[in-house]
Amino acid sequence: MLLECLVREGVDCIFGYPGGVTLPFYDALYDHHIKHILVRHEQNAAFAAQGYARATGRTGVCCATSGPGATNLITGLVDAMMDSIPIVALTGQVTSKLIGSDAFQEADTFGITRPCTKHNFLIKNLADLPQAIHEAFHIASTGRPGPVLVDITKDVFQGQAHYSPVNSIHLPGYKVFTEGHAGQIRRAAQMMWEAERPMIYAGGGIIAAGASEELTSLVETLDAPTVCTLMGLGGLSSSHPNFISMPGMHGSYAANMAMTHTDLLIALGVRFDDRVTGRLNAFAPHAKVIHVDIDPAEIGKIRNPELPIVGDVKRVLGKLNAQVNELKESSAAKNAEPRKKWWAQVNAWRDENPMKPSFSDKEIKPQHLISEIDRLSGGEAIVTSDVGQHQMWSAQFIRFNHPRLWINSGGLGSMGFGLPAAVGAQFARPDKLVFSIVGDGGFQMSIPELATIAKHALPVKIVVLNNGYLGMVRQWQELFYNNRLSSVELDVFPDAEKLAAAYGFKGRTIDKPSELAAALEEAVREPGPYLLNVKVTPFENVYPMVPAGGAINEMVLANPQPVSVD
Ligand SMILES: Cc1ncc(C[n+]2csc(CCOP(=O)(O)OP(=O)(O)O)c2C)c(N)n1
User: Fold this and answer.
1) What's the 474 CA to ligand 1 centre distance in angstroms?
2) What's the gap in Å between 50 CA and the centre of ligand 1?
3) Which of 75, 384, 408, 470 to mutate to test the pocket of ligand 1 (most atoms within 8 A of CB)?
4) Is the CB of 415 under 6 A from ligand 1?
5) End-to-end CA distance of the chain
6) Beta bridge partners of 291
């Protein structure tokens, strides 16, 4: 019955790990056409399900047994919650009569996951199962997407019943406002033409709603400079002339200066994250704010907008574009002159401090590595990253010409995300070139998934940006803790060639700039997986950088002083 529900929800694969309580489910999976991908740790099942969901927009599914299996999922659930990613997690629970008796492998999964899921269910009666599963998929994928967990007791797993179709879903307490208020949309269009220095701040909501086309149309009609957040990269093509890169802590100079000087911030599917705003009382101080979001709880959470619009950003933008176009003829000329000046100023900021990778002919600069990956991708490859310096350099220097190419853990910043996310993304998009860019720290958190990659011969190109340190933490220790490098050195790292060979695929370590291009090309040419360990300059910092608590226009643009480490 459970599998029939999943089939009807369009599920084609599940990432999971079995155990005692879920044995009956795994028995049913034995000869079922839904693929089960055996990962090597439940956390990675949740990350792989996310990789699948982030690459496609479809709901990813993961599965774990009771107790430790379920608790191992938690980081992946919180991660999906923070980034609004639709996944359904199925967990086993002890027999309903034993709940509360400290039975073997009992954990209060329902209680534990309450704050880290959009919704969760505990199913103790077989008859409730189909309704709950269909509701879970509905809740995960509608409104603001997110993780939903269904905890199923062993007696329910052992039960037998025929599936009777669930024809309707009634959730009286769950309301999704998609359309946006017509009057507010009209007012927003007027404000957009009244502004002298408008700019668009586009986030992960654009990707979730599939609103890239509508966004691009607004950008072009208004001819506004546009930033995409870490979660929104690819929402507007990075190659678009109006794209002025990412804002925030490691955002571009032009993006942060424009945010500081705009008089109308058009915030679309964003949540004013602290990594974007910096010190709040200095954030966009001259701007009126239009905030479009599907989640009413986001409106005014961090910044009170002058004009809120609650709705699906795709639907709202569709209507807004019509209004903006309608008003264009009567309004566009009015502020043409100040808008021209605004663009001249934005372009001057771009020229003043462009995002430029560094190169050296002695050692491989991390930015050089990332820009070589960008060259091979041409804005078209899927790139999953882990968390740290390599993630920021990837966001700065890799172009994403479409949505759903850039897959990273934005809100939670979970190390260990990159590799399992690549597993999910490559399963979902076998046609795509998938790079997994990981640090030497995060890679060692997810090494077990090399087995999953090998088992399925997934042609993921794993690139370790190996700086010998927990680079991002080392950077903070250097800049804010007097360069006292405490517990950040990673001086033991496996031989990449031997490690890959142990799993049955190819790998290699390089450390010379002259080897870089050819080594990456070789990795891409290889039909199977490839592990490329790239030894880069150890003490490179990510810039620009807004120090924690600083205003975003107070960026540090380069190393303040030479670094000495003894
Ligand atoms: C699970 C987890 N633990 C700790 C951290 C804190 N943290 C953020 S970045 C970072 C360093 C990452 O080092 P590495 O993977 O080598 O990447 P690099 O910064 O060198 O590119 C750490 C420890 C985290 N984000 N996630």
Assistant:
1) 10
2) 19
3) 470
4) yes
5) 64
6) 267, 308
What tokens appear for 243 in the block?
């794209």
Rounded-to-integer distance, Cα 160 and Cα 566, Å:
67
Domain spans of the chain? Answer: 2-158, 182-352, 366-535
* Model pLDDT, residue 561: 54
- What's the CA-to-centroid distance between 477 and ligand 1, angstroms? 13
Atom 20 (ligand 1) nearest CA: 471
For ligand 1, whether the C-beta of 538 sits within 6 Å is: no
CA distance 539 to 182: 53
Reported as a single tens digit per residue, the pLDDT across 24-65 is 999 999 999 999 999 999 999 999 999 999 999 999 999 999
Can you tell me the distance from the alpha carbon of 290 to that of 309, in angstroms, rounded to the nearest whole number? 8
Is residue 62 within 8 Å of residue 73, measured between CB atoms?
Answer: yes
Nearest CA-CA partner of 83 in 229, 226, 255, 237:
229
Between 1.10.150.120, 3.40.50.2300, 3.40.50.970, 3.30.420.40, what CATH number should domain 366-535 receive?
3.40.50.970
- How far is ligand 1, taken at its centre, from the CA of residue 408, in Å? 13
CATH 3.10.20.880 fits 182-352, yes or no: no
Tens of pLDDT, residues 311-366: 999 999 999 999 999 999 999 999 999 999 999 999 999 999 999 888 999 999 99
Nearest to 70 by CA among 104, 14, 100, 108: 108
Measured CA to CA, the distance from residue 499 to residue 507 in angstroms comes to 8
One fold for both 182-352 and 366-535? yes
The 3-state DSSP class for residue 207 equals: helix
Both tokens of residue 428? Answer: 């979902």
Integer-rounded Cα radius of gyration of the chain: 24
Please work out whether the CB of residue 472 comes within 6 Å of at least one atom of ligand 1.
yes
387 ligand 1 Cβ < 6 A: yes
CA 160 to chain centre: 39
SS3 content of the chain, % helix, strand, coil (to 5): 40, 15, 40
Helix (H, G, I), strand (E, B) or coil at 245: coil
* Residues tagged active-site: 42, 104-105, 154, 472
CB of 435 closer than 8 Å to CB of 384: yes
Please, are residues 549 and 279 in contact by the beta-carbon 8 Å criterion? yes
Across the chain, which has 566 residues, the per-10-residue mean pLDDT values are 97 98 97 98 98 98 98 98 98 98 98 98 97 98 98 97 90 95 98 98 98 98 98 98 98 98 98 97 98 98 98 98 97 96 98 92 97 98 98 98 98 98 98 98 98 98 98 97 98 98 98 98 98 98 94 89 47
Give, in words, the CATH class of 2-158. Answer: alpha beta
From the CA of 490, give the closest atom in ligand 1: 16
Give the pLDDT of residue 565. 46
